[in-house]
Write a structure and sequence with these properties.
With 447 residues, this protein is an alpha+beta fold. The protein folds into two domains: 3-270 and 398-445, 2-methylcitrate dehydratase PrpD; 275-390, 2-methylcitrate dehydratase PrpD (60s Ribosomal Protein L30, Chain: A), CATH 3.30.1330.120. The protein has helices at 3-16, 21-41, 45-54, 56-59, 66-76, 93-105, 112-138, 143-159, 164-177, 190-213, 228-232, 246-254, 278-288, 307-313, 321-324, 328-336, 354-359, 399-414, 418-426, 435-445; strands at residues 85-86, 266-267, 298-305, 363-367, 376-382, 387-390. A hairpin with a 4-residue loop joins β5 and β6 (387-390). α2 (21-41) crosses α5 (66-76).
Length: 447
């Protein structure tokens, strides 16, 4: 069997078997988290631009094909950097997989249990491919855009009811269409990053629809000599510690599929920043929590982290709210200036706050090859000549925190009808049809 055919068999099994209770609950939470992010993103300039591009102002936005719905929902959910991310790899699965699953469900009425199965399978496939691709791939490619496309195809294939043969071909089409480059993505091209999950969700839906019609693709699309991994995850100086064997890759890609569901290791973001800012934020908050410690005691801050994270979040002079999402100096300056960094989305005017601007130049980010990806040490220089440091892990949002902020977003977007959307997601498993859920979600995110 090929990797794609083994994934297809896994998708078939997942779609036809009840999900374990904890997996089903996590899938519902992922829907809530994605919609929370999309509701806030619907008010952004990116959303306005996409609605214009899709012609929704002219046609009322009441009916559209699934590819357009996936593009729009995936993109806007990434605007404020509050979409979920994964512990095993720097991948934002919800903005791609949930967007694709809901978009497909808008064309093909399915039960809630099938929708959730599609999401679980999409997470599993996307995460496994991203882990197997490693930094060999991630150094150049945004894995949410690339591996996410293949995960979106898994989700859409289940929603559309594809058999294993057609699902295998959907994976091949998704793999050959996957793209998304890192160039300037944390600087001038930040808004292109918004498009990455949207394009991935769109391509995944399209792959499933074409496969349903009978279009064929390469069976060895992932592991072949000219397949995804050979072309897009090449070893080299950019990933000196990575040289997996074919056997290693096979273990990562297909061994024990679904036995340790990837969706259970998801991160629901506490802060509206790139995940690389999270450990530094926890560190500065820990230092300020010391008895009688005040921001005025601090004269400068050094953040030591991995070289790749330092590149990602070292933006020292963010010029707009999007660049600020990739600036640990800005994130820590907000804390030192006394602002609430858990608020999502953050008010735009804080970027010009004089106290925030005063702190930004006093905060440096340095990369250290000895640091692993999910680690940062924050060192504060104090005005008495001493230094204090903190090395704190990120904190995932608890389930009830995710539900509470989703409920607030629903009420914000739909008023009294917000409770209907919240309730539909909460009881998704028991729904014989998700048509009303999809319609309510569409109303909430159309701006």
């Amino acid at each position: 069997m090929t990797v794609a055919s083994e994934w297809a068999a896994y998708c078939s099994t997942t779609a036809s078997s009840p999900l374990p209770a904890n997996v089903e609950a996590r899938a519902r939470l992922c829907v809530a988290d994605h919609l929370h992010a999309a509701i806030h993103g619907a008010r952004s300039d990116t959303a306005t631009l996409l609605r214009s591009y899709l012609g929704w102002e002219r046609i009322g936005g009441s009916a559209t094909h699934a590819e357009a719905a996936a593009l729009y929902a995936g993109a806007i959910s990434a605007v404020h950097e509050i979409d979920d991310v994964h512990q095993d790899t720097s991948l934002h699965p919800g903005s791609v997989v949930v967007a694709a699953a809901l978009a497909a469900a808008g064309e093909c009425d399915v039960s809630g249990s099938r929708l959730l199965a599609a999401i679980v399978a999409g997470y599993e496939v996307a995460v496994r491919l991203s882990v197997a691709s490693g930094h060999r791939h991630y150094h150049y490619f945004h894995s949410t855009a690339t591996c996410g496309t293949v995960g979106a195809a898994a989700a859409a294939s289940i929603v559309y009811g594809l058999d294993e043969e057609r699902t295998t071909h959907a994976f091949g089409m998704a793999a050959t269409s996957a793209s998304g480059l890192w160039e300037e993505i944390n600087d001038d091209a930040v808004t292109v990053k918004h498009l990455h999950p949207g394009l991935a969700a769109e391509r995944g839906v399209r792959a499933a629809k074409l496969a349903r019609l009978g279009l064929r693709s390469a069976r060895h699309s992932i592991e072949g000599d000219k397949g995804f991994l050979a072309a897009l995850a090449r070893a080299g100086a950019h990933a000196p510690a990575e040289s997996p064997t074919p056997e290693d890759l096979a273990l990562t890609l297909v061994k024990s599929l679904g036995e340790r569901p990837a969706i259970l290791r998801n991160i629901f973001k506490r802060y509206p920043f790139c995940l690389g800012c999270f450990e530094p934020l926890e560190g500065i908050r820990k230092l300020l929590a010391a008895p009688s410690r005040k921001p005025s005691d601090i004269t400068g801050v050094l953040v030591e982290t991995s070289t790749s994270t330092a590149w990602m979040v070292g933006q020292s002079d963010p010029r707009d709210e999007f660049q600020a999402k990739f600036s640990a100096p800005y994130a820590l300056a907000l804390v030192l200036a006394g602002h609430d960094v858990e608020r999502a989305p953050l008010p735009k005017h804080l970027l010009d706050d004089p106290e925030v601007r005063r702190w930004i130049p006093l905060i440096r980010v340095e990369g250290d090859a000895e640091f692993r990806r999910r680690r940062a040490r924050v060192i504060a220089s104090l005005n008495d000549g001493t230094r204090d440091s903190a090395d704190e892990p990120f904190r995932n949002l608890a389930d009830d925190e995710v539900w509470r902020r989703f409920a607030r977003a629903c009420a914000d977007a739909l008023g009294e009808c917000g409770a209907l959307l919240e309730h539909a997601v909460d009881r998704c498993t028991s729904l014989s049809s998700v048509a009303d859920l999809v319609a309510l979600a569409g109303s909430a995110i159309r701006g």
